[in-house]
Amino acid sequence: MTNDIRIISIELENYRQYYGEHKIKFSSSDEGFTVITGKNGEGKSNLLNSISWCFYHKEPHGRKDTQVSGQNESLPVINNRYIIEIDKEKIATTSVKIQLSVGDTVYNISRILQVIKHRLEFIDLVQGGKSIRITEHTIDKVPIGCEIINENKNDFVIMKREKDQRDFHDTKSDADPNVIMEEILPERLSKYFLLDGEFVEGIWKDLNLVQDGVEQISQLHLLSSLKTHVNAMRIPSKGAGKDTDELTAKIERLYRYEKSLDDDGKPDLSDTIRWKVNLNEPDVKFHVSGKPRIKELAADIKKMQDRIREISNKIPNISIPSLEMLKNRYEEIEKQIDEEKENLSSHGKKYRYNLITKSPYVFLKNAIEASIKIIEERISLGELPVRHRKQFADDLLKRGTCVCGENLRTNPNDNNTINKRIQNIREFRDSLAGKKDLDAALDMRNNFKHNFVDDYNGFLKSNFGDLRTKFTNSESKYESLLKTWKGVKTQLKSTGNKEIKSLIDEQTYLQELIQSNNEEITNIQLELSANTKTQTNLRIQLEKGLKKNKKARRLSHELDVWARIYSHLETIHNELTEDIRLGVEQNTWKNFQELLSNPEEFKAFHIEPDYTVYLQDAHDMNKIRDLAAGQSLILTLAFVVALREPTGYKFPIVIDSPLGKIDSSNKYNIGVHLPKYLKKEQLVLLVTDTEYTAYLPPDPGYPKLPNTPVGVLLQERIPLKHFRIQKEKQGKNTGNSAINDAELTYDKERKGWMVKTIV
Amino acid sequence: MQHAGISDKIIGSLNKIVKDQKEFDMIIDLLKSEKTFGYKGDDDSKIKTQFQKYMDQHFPLEDES
Questions:
Q1: What is the spatial distance between Cα A132 and Cα A124, in angstroms, rounded to a whole number?
Q2: How far apart are CA A204 and CA A156, in angstroms?
Q3: ipTM value > 0.85
Q4: At the N or C end, where does chain B have fewer CB atoms within 10 A?
């Protein structure tokens, strides 16, 4: 059974700029990619929105695109022309229907919005003409004067047809359609398959997206939360006896600290208010203790760091010509600090890693040397490794002469004797099959001798010395930069500019707050670690106590089961977390290198256990926050494609305007390599003509690069199904868009490639 | 997806690690309900009640004796 999820078709009815009914039937698995072309502002992003609206009742795409933003904020979900044309007091219907397959099961998912049209209101536009006034406080923006008639009931329906079934049936009796939708394609994962420019540009700046991508798509988050809930079941109810009740009470206290719960099991909040960017935001209180508090402190640190960055960008832009040099210096040092901070973290991690993994060799040096001596003594006494003995026998047989000079070839005059010698050697060789004897020890001896004992100083230098030097150098450089930066800030403050002074004060305050939050996180982590040890001991005592107590047979039995279940979950979680993270890391790096035109620019890609991402350039600098738009897109594509394998989750990928900001050489690589990665997968590209059909402009770095358009490169490698979105520019339907079947063809008159509507 | 939306990776790992069929079935049920809790944001008491049901279903005390 395959788990592939594919969008089969999408039907729009009077949705935004799509007047009337429109249908797109996407490529099947044998029909390659689907390409939908259209100019900016003609409805590509709203096609992406129509999927989100149908599945999740949200329209998050294209918000940064001013054209779409302008349209969506001022236009209703219901098509403008349609709502104007329909008679008063009649029902107007807008819908998006999507057919989706999950393996052999097919779903018909539809969201319908119905309104009764009363009296519309219009506003005069500055540029002339009129526009419909729309509501501001409803989820769906509908015209003022329209009454939504099916809000929250019967507007979202999922029909299902399983393998071997003829008809679809309504899933309403199985579960809430929103729950079913979450099972098919969870909303939190939608950003990884409905890709827009905002996500592509932002993912490497918000590393939570990397963690979410890996953990949510692979469902590691399910294992984490299940572990927590199962752990809660390991606290039995009281009443079995005084001793065990006391132990239970102690475990409960520790558990409540960990989860920050009060005596009634409700969230325990402190009076301290969390930090907020904007003072107008409502106050939010901290949890009192444990993991929730750590999470909140860490989230606040992230917000504060963003604010510090924002301030840093603001200061150099304050227009004071006399301070230009000082501001430039401020900006320059801050950039260096950012880079050095990444370096410091990377060197520190490597150094600590080697201390943990390679130090045992140093402590065991004498034992290793003694072992090598024992192995060498045995070899000197003639105890050869199996593979040497086997090789010796093969050589004798091949050479045809024994070491004593006897002939080992078949001799017709003395057939029996010679054959017997050959037979003996063959038997000896065959008897070695499957034996290992000294082989493993010899490999170990060779490995330790060459890499450790013979060059002990080299081992120390490369594994500790060099890394330590790099780490300490980086540390002192970082500290010196911070000192210089502080000096520049003091100078800037003393210039008398109030705005700068206030921003620098805010920045200093936030830096102190971050430090204090970090200290608190460390303290809670230490407390939690001690807490876990105590809990384990108490649980052992409790289990023993309950086993002795006949009245507590049921409790003891259940506790046993929960402990086993918890232990399994922990093993699976640990194993998969490492396995999946490393799998995504390796695949992303492999894909990125193949898709990138200049792979030598980068040396390595790492996703650390805490999901910090490193993309090392040739000078060992981490460039992850400093990528060009094209590189960021390629890395995102590499990552999203990489997520699919180790996580085992095959979802469709729909990308809005992926190639606009990419240079020719990288466009070429995408055109050539993407079909290879996503051969049988569903990829839908929403593209402009320029990014898809235009000849690739010359790239000075690659003078021999063919100028073949991306569309043609793709078409040469994989079947493509084309659609074209076109906005009407005249007649009754002006401003509305239509979706038509299309094809990629060469236009002799224009001497170029085009996606033409099929008439 | 097999087992109502639990990833193949998790199922594969469960198959490898959990040899007892009853424990396996119980973990599948727990994971399935965890998916729904995650979406609905149910409170701890509801989760406990649901989990206790699975315990009674898969590991009733008589069975053990």
A1: 9
A2: 35
A3: yes
A4: C
